[in-house]
């Protein structure tokens, strides 16, 4: 692909960064017919396993994007933990709650998949949808006005700067985001751990792959290490506290740290495929939108790796933003719809940031919250509930729309795609429907996970509007049409 293919014609959206965030957003926009230019400073996809835990809610996103089959094929469940003491096995234990699939929540987790594999799967999907990534393109400048964004890119290896124009831009360029720096958006946070962490992908043929091997610190010590077998590879992900910070990470240094923090001699580490060290911080951008530019993923929030929340929260940033950009660019939705990205995602990111920090410090255990199925948008301006007298715990507007099978239909199959869905549960569909582009309607019998009523399901799988069912649903349908016209159509 010619790396400057898009320079003659403005794109709808410029995405800076081809990590999981940028690739999910690009896939979502491509299937909606939105022209996105994805640029990545590196010459190729990220090579390491760093964000390896895919939570159930993210698996639902991948289902909708058409990649869950490959994710399940190349991933695997978390193995049973094995604690070691003084070179001897001290006992097995479950690293995570053993939660099985249910009708309304078909995916369990975390599902382990090296980050490099996740990105390859997403890039393949993007190319199937007609998109691609421009590698070796470094962003050095960014300006905007009320109509468009102009970015300055420099080709890898030198060359003349190239200016590209887009209707909007999205910073998906990581924790050290160039876009965020150019915008002057600050991050507020704290250092979670005084010691830096080293993470590496290593090959150790003498170590069994049946367990996630945990090496607690010696009495009075601060060291900690783990070796997690990565599914369908020869590799382990090695994580350990490291005394050195800022120095170049070398293969010999990784081997020495393995020997120091485990019983495994350095010589048994036959390969070091990738390694990096980092300071464990928790930080949140002061805002997620600056005019026509949006921050997503690590550019907006930086997590401790504990609890596996970083990549998953990032994916869901992109999933939230994609349909809203398309609605404004393609369907005539009001520009104000884009304000709801920050309204919804900033508090969710803050909640997940706090969770991962507490888990890192041992103040909270991994549990239901880490699966992210309970996250919702009840307080959003895009959520309207007109039913009254609901039982405690009832599904309501702003909640995730559950899966289920009724009368030969799977709800997630019906929701999949770029459309809104109007679901009538144990009630007739209204005769007059809201004029949402591509609206899909479904009527099904009684289903306890929902309860009787009408539900407008957003393209990202959350319930936007909910109203009572009955023999004559036209009264609530009038409210639905008025709300859609005001909020989603403008």
TrEMBL record:
Q: Where is the FAD-binding domain?
A: 12-353
Q: What is the top-level taxon of the source organism?
A: Bacteria
SUPFAM superfamilies referenced in this protein's UniProt entry, alphabetically: FAD/NAD(P)-binding domain
Keywords tagged on the record: FAD, Flavoprotein, Monooxygenase, Oxidoreductase
Q: What is this protein called?
A: Pentachlorophenol monooxygenase
Tell me which cofactor or cofactors this protein depends on: FAD
Q: Which InterPro entries match?
A: FAD-bd, FAD/NAD-bd_sf, RIFMO-like
Gene3D superfamilies in the record = 3.30.70.2450, 3.40.30.120, FAD/NAD(P)-binding domain
- State which residue ranges cross the membrane: none
What's one GO MF term for it?
oxidoreductase activity, acting on paired donors, with incorporation or reduction of molecular oxygen, NAD(P)H as one donor, and incorporation of one atom of oxygen
């Amino acid at each position: 692909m010619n790396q400057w293919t898009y320079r003659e014609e403005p794109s709808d959206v410029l995405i800076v960064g081809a990590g999981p965030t940028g690739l999910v957003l690009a896939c979502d926009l491509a299937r909606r017919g939105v022209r996105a230019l994805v640029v990545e400073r590196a010459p190729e996809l990220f090579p390491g396993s760093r964000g390896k835990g895919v939570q159930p809610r993210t698996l639902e996103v991948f289902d909708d994007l058409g990649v869950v089959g490959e994710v399940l094929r190349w991933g695997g469940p978390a193995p049973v933990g094995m604690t070691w003491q003084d070179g001897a096995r001290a006992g097995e234990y479950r690293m995570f709650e053993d939660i099985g699939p249910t009708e309304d929540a078909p995916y369990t987790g975390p599902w382990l998949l090296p980050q490099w594999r996740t990105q390859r799967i997403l890039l393949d999907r993007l190319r199937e949808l007609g998109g691609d990534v421009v590698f070796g393109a470094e962003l050095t400048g960014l300006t905007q006005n009320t109509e468009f964004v102009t970015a300055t890119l420099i080709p890898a290896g030198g060359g003349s700067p190239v200016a590209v124009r887009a209707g909007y831009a999205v910073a998906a360029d990581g924790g050290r985001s160039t876009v965020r720096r150019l915008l002057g958006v600050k991050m507020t946070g704290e250092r979670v751990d005084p010691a830096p962490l080293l993470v590496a992908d290593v090959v150790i043929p003498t170590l069994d792959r049946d367990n996630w091997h945990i090496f607690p610190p010696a009495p009075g010590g601060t060291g900690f290490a783990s070796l997690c077998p990565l599914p369908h590879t020869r590799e382990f992900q090695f994580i350990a506290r490291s005394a050195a910070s800022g120095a170049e990470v070398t293969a010999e240094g990784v081997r020495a740290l393995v020997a120091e923090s485990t019983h495994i001699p350095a010589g048994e580490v036959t390969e070091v495929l990738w390694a990096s060290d980092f300071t464990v911080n928790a930080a949140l951008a002061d805002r997620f939108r600056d005019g026509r530019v949006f921050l997503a993923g690590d550019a907006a929030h930086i997590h401790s790796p504990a609890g596996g929340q970083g990549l998953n929260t990032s994916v869901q940033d992109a999933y939230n933003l994609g349909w809203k950009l398309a609605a404004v660019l393609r369907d005539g939705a009001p520009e104000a719809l884009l304000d709801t990205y920050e309204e919804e995602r900033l508090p969710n990111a803050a909640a997940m940031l706090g969770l991962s920090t507490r888990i890192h410090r041992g103040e909270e255990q991994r549990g239901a919250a880490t699966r992210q199925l309970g996250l919702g948008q009840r307080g959003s301006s895009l959520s309207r509930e007109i039913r009254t007298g609901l039982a405690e715990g009832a599904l309501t507007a702003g909640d995730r729309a559950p899966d289920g099978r009724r009368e030969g239909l799977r709800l997630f199959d019906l929701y999949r795609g770029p459309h809104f869905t109007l679901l009538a549960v144990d009630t007739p569909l209204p005769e007059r429907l809201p004029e949402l582009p591509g609206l899909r309607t479904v009527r099904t019998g009684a289903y306890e996970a929902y309860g009787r009523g009408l539900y407008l399901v957003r393209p990202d799988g959350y319930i936007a509007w909910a109203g009572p069912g009955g023999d004559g649903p036209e009264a609530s349908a009038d409210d639905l049409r008025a709300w859609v016209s005001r909020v989603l159509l403008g």
